[in-house]
Amino acid sequence: MTAVTLAQLSISMEDGRVSRWLVADGELVSTGQPVVEIETDKATIEIEAPVDGVVRIVAAEGDIVVVDGILAELEPATATTATAPADGRAVLPDSAPLLGESVAPQGLSTATSPRRSGPIASPAARRLAREQAVDLRGVSGSGPGGRIVARDIAAVGAAPTTSVAPDAQRLREAVVGNITASWQQIPHVHIGGELAAGGLVQAREILASSGLDVTVTDLLIVAIAQALVEVPDLNGRRLTDGSVERSTAVHLALAVATENGVVAPVLRNADSLAVSEVTRERRRLVDVARSGVVEGRDLVGGTCTLSNLGAYPVDFFAPVVSGPQIAMIATGRVAEKVVAENGWLGVRPSMWVNVAIDHRASDGEAGGRLLAALERHLTSLAEGLS
After folding, report:
1. Alpha carbons 231 and 225: distance in angstroms, whole number
2. What is the distance of C-alpha 43 from the center of its chain?
3. % of the chain with per-residue pLDDT over 90
4. What is the pLDDT of residues 36-75, one digit of tens each?
5. Closest CA relative to residue 77, chosen from 12, 36, 30
6. What is the pLDDT of residues 284-301, one digit of tens each?
7. pLDDT over 70 for what percent of the chain?
8. Which residue, 201, 205, 384, 164, is CA-closest to 291?
């Protein structure tokens, strides 16, 4: 049996409410299929099946489940299903307990069956549609891939001032709650430095001349991911039992400002992506964050966070670690600075980088090593591009 559990999205998150099951008890689901909607302190998210299997629901709709608590268990399909009949449905063996008259005649959907019928909509949009009695089949989606998002429901239902504001307020309260809990519970140490950024500027110019529209953030992601590979002390999470889980892959959360507050979707395996792949995935995450269509899988699993305020006249700021992660990296603008080198004065692009660290999990020396590694990778960004 494999458990479907509730992951911790923020340090202030202690539990979540089961909003709606998207599958029936006893249904056969495939890996990655959304199975349940959960309302947390941060958002309404969809939890996906970690493996193929038959769902055995543990927490009913309306139940409050603590972080790491079990929502359902998945039985291996081979242990519970019989050979599928000609109509493509699998059925329970005779020895299996019946699930009720309304469920048993339908049988179990196979892994090749559609994940969900009807329009594709975000959890927030579905909730708003239920509240306003809006039929999703008559709504045109404005989200990525035609997905229906909350603003689409507001457009056909009640005025946005009465329908969207509560969600916005909840998100802002969740952000404030997470920051407050992180600041109160995490002993912070901040390590900052002004790093040479000439290689970053040169790399962006070279890539732009080849037709690739790359941002400073994209290149920062590439360099930070490689630096975290070299300094794994700061790439991971502090678990609820106080132990530290360091990751061999870099799943970099990106702080994205939206109309309803800041969210941090996760760019997975950033250390193994080419610049063009980083650019494409970063754009997707920013788009979904600002459209309100952030799926659960895009919010969980971050091992470090980047907050870049370089688009503003900001040189330096001290971020609050986004628990349960170990570290958060804050970057300011790239600007030309007068520097002294080998007895000569010159001008070069530079940028301030500040690393906030949970002192329970690591220390300032690791922050110093990360800054040194990051400067090396920023300097070498342009190598091999010209």
Report:
1. 10
2. 11
3. 48
4. 988 876 667 788 888 999 999 999 998 888 888 899 999 9
5. 30
6. 999 988 887 667 678 888
7. 77
8. 164
Q: What distance lies between CA 236 and its chain's CA centroid?
A: 14
Count of positions (residues) in the chain:
386
Measured CA angle at 281 (ends 277, 285), to 5 deg: 170
Which tokens belong to 254? 């990106």
Q: What is the mean pLDDT of the chain?
A: 81
Return the residue matching tokens 């070279």: 206
Residue 386 structure tokens = 């010209």
Half-sphere exposure of 189 (CA within 13 A, CB side): 15
Strands 15-21 and 64-66: antiparallel
Q: Are 17 and 38 in contact (CB under 8 A)?
A: yes
Q: Is residue 346 packed enough to be buried (19+ CB in 10 Å), middle (13-18) or exposed (0-12)?
A: exposed
Q: How far is CA 225 from the centre of its chain?
A: 16
